[in-house]
């Protein structure tokens, strides 16, 4: 069995991940931790997740439990994620990172750190979203610059980063599809007298409201017609299911950065 350490074990996503780890035939929920001051510290992780008592007490910080697991699953906050990755590199522990909001500099550091441990990093662990990533790049390549590309994403009101990591990845892949770079084409806010739409630009707009789990729509709009590619998340379970699959896949791999395309064998599609 592969022993799993869950970061942010007392949070909503941590509890959801715990359920999918517990249900996976190759995984064992071995350790859990929270940030200093969390009311979950000292509680039974199984009870917190609604799984029944499992004898795993939620510890304070990763360092307290890093020797108890083979892989760390982290969906917390970008600054914390980088601290966990540095510790994983020192201890050669595999990681699955679904945290969003990582900056370009942080991603560069993560790539360097992963020279010491295997790491699956993806802005979205959903199987269907990763299929959407492929569809968007292929659609952009087929339609080219004759079609305007716009991305609209919607999430719950407590989400801290915008645009979502998934929306940014969709934008990056759409830009790659037309042979360009999102850094050159991306537009993230429109307000006031903005003039005509710049040829080739990729708009990314964010909605934050109530308890929306996650919705992403990519528009390819041409003269008189458009294609809309949409993914709607009904719950967080599909993110957690993908994370569990990634945890089972990554342990024993060579050090380096991997994506869900690798886990799902979509890289060459």
Question: How would you explain this protein's 3D organization?
Answer:
By secondary structure, the protein is of the alpha/beta class. It folds into two domains: 2-121 and 236-263, NAD(P)-binding Rossmann-like Domain (Rossmann fold), CATH 3.40.50.720; 127-233, Dihydrodipicolinate Reductase, domain 2 (2-Layer Sandwich). The chain has helices at residues 12-23, 45-48, 78-91, 104-113, 127-143, 165-177, 182-185, 237-250, 260-263; strands at residues 2-7, 27-34, 58-60, 71-74, 94-97, 118-121, 148-155, 186-187, 202-208, 214-222, 225-233, 256-258. The strands form two sheets. A seven-stranded parallel beta sheet has the order 3-2-1-4-5-6-12, sandwiched between helices. It has a five-stranded mixed beta sheet with strand order 8-9-7-10-11. Strand 4, helix 3 and strand 5 (94-97) form a beta-alpha-beta unit. The longest helix has 17 residues, at 127-143. The radius of gyration is 19 Å and the shape is elongated.
């Amino acid at each position: 069995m592969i022993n799993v350490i869950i970061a942010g074990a007392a949070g909503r996503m941590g509890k959801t991940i715990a359920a999918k780890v517990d249900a996976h035939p190759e995984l064992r929920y071995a350790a859990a931790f929270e940030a200093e001051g969390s009311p979950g510290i000292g509680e039974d992780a199984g009870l917190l997740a609604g799984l029944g008592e499992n004898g795993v007490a939620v510890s304070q910080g990763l360092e307290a439990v890093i020797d108890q697991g083979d892989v760390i699953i982290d969906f917390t906050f970008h600054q914390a994620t980088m601290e966990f990755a540095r510790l994983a590199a020192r201890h050669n522990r595999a990681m699955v990172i679904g945290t969003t909001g990582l900056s370009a500099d942080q991603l560069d550091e993560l790539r360097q750190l992963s020279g010491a441990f295997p790491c699956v990093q993806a802005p979205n662990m959903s199987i269907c979203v990763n299929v959407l990533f492929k569809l968007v790049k292929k659609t952009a390549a087929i339609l080219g610059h004759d079609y305007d590309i716009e991305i609209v994403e919607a999430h719950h009101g407590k989400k801290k980063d915008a645009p979502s990591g998934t929306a940014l990845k969709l934008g990056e892949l759409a830009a790659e599809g037309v042979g360009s770079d999102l850094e050159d084409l991306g537009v993230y806010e429109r307000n006031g007298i903005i003039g005509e739409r710049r040829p080739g630009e990729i708009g990314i707009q964010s909605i934050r409201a109530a308890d929306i789990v996650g919705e992403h729509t990519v528009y390819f709009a041409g003269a008189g017609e458009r294609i809309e590619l949409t993914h709607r998340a009904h719950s967080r379970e599909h993110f957690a299911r993908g994370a569990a699959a990634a945890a089972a896949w990554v342990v024993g791999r060579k050090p380096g950065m991997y994506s869900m395309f690798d886990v799902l064998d979509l890289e060459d599609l």
